[in-house]
Amino acid sequence: MASIYSVAQYLLFIIIVTVLVKPLGGYVERVFSGKRTALDRFLLPLEKFIYRITRVDPAAEMTFPHYATCFVLFGLFSTLLLYAILRAQRFLPWFWPAYQITPLTPDLAFNTAVSFSTTTTWQAYAGENTMSYFSQMAGLCAQNFLAGAAGLAVGMAFIRGLARQVCDTLGNFWVDLVRALLWVLVPGSLVGALLLVGQGVPMNFHHYAVVTTVEGAKQVIPQGPVAALEIIKNLGTNGGGFFNANGAHPYENPTPLSNFLEMLAIVLLPAALTNTFGRMVGQPRQGRLFYYVMLFLFICGLLFVHGFEQRGSPHAGNVDFRSSQAQSGGNMEGKEVRFGIAGTALAAVVTSNTATGSYNAMHDSFSSLGGMVLLLNMLLGELVFGGLGSGLYSMVMAAAIAVFLGGLMVGRTPEYLGKKIGPAENKMIVLYALAAPLVILPLTAIAVSTSAGLSGLTTNSGPHGFTEILFAYTSSFANNGQSFAGLSANTPFYNLTTALAMIVGRFGLAIPALALAALFGRQRNTPASSGTLPTHHFVFGLLLTACLTTIAALSYLPGLALGPILERLQLGN
User: Fold this and answer.
1) How many domains does the chain divide into?
2) What pLDDT, on a 0 to 100 scale, did the predictor assign at position 2?
């Protein structure tokens, strides 16, 4: 049973997110619609200066091919620039050979460059033992801003396309990118970083401290600009961390309050985009329906993870798993005592539902079913809030499938937002829906059937080892970045194959989404009639939820049966 503290923490989190969805969603809509905001006085001159030196015409709009090309080329340039920084790290400032002892081999540098430029931030290395301060700030932190802003730009172009009529353009990628940076990510990061510094998160460029412990041993305590990287990795739905221990490290996440603030930073913008969507398409109830479906799935995941972890292992004898004032109870292996079951479950569900792998516990130590919930959250497409833009267009794609199925039931041409879903639209939807299983499952199969893949299972084998591999490719494709850390992934095989999954997960989903938005934008709205399927009512919410779970089950149930389900059955009752 959940304690009063756990229930209060969950309710407070849900209430704060729900209350802020409308004002924050309205702010984002004003930013990307060119309406006045409170920050215009300070940021408009800077925006004009950026356009002037980059020779960008803010009034020039782009068609789908032009917008998608800019997005892909920006991602490619960002990857190459970060790769160059990482490979030249030892020649750049703030590199200390005594502490940065993990070699940045070509395959590891390539994997890391792809990871951060796609907002995956999959880390096959220990942060404090690998990256210099320069690499952390000029490389990784900068990409957290740029890649997050690019993802938000694509999300806004997607909404813009759905909202327009008889129009071939989706906006201007460079304008959307600059506005996402200046009006959204930079102000949010400044405020969030100050809050984290107030909680004790370091923000300095001091040399690593070497101290003598009470036992007389020497210990190296890393320093660094932690707060700057910490807030944008959450706000930009990037993930990763300055330290190997990630969000569980007392420098990255020192208090229960900092844990709560970081979870809010991850969720607020993606959740608010449902309101932005409703405003921009002129149908606020559509946005509210999406938010309620997301919230329902979020609460289900939270309850399941809390229940599975609070129960503990059925084979641990003479152990008191009950929650009390003296202990958190439950399965505390791999979890921080200062967060307990509640803070850990909240972080696990938030990060697996969004594109942010900034977890604060060892997910490899979760119960088999608790870990399966996290895996399912990513396999669903991270549409429960999701990333900056990616969660929303995943939900819209799922809604389009639900509309198509509903149209078949009533014998009418499927329509969504007054636009018909014809053969061309269906092709983009199917391409989007098939991308994940066509990448995740084959890569998992190759890994579990080759010596190069199996060599990464240095800790576990059997069903749990299978889950570790499936989780790795799912996390990479979902641009999430968290892992079951029992998998030793710093090998050429995993560095290259997970990078492939990241690339397809970033561009293989965004491009069909933009194409669908362009197809919708060329149509004229069809007035609703008595035969039109309402897509803002409770019944459609049920259809959408059923459609989501059915698609995930049909695609991944065999994989789940070989992994977490089989592991749980082997435990018995």
Assistant:
1) 1
2) 58
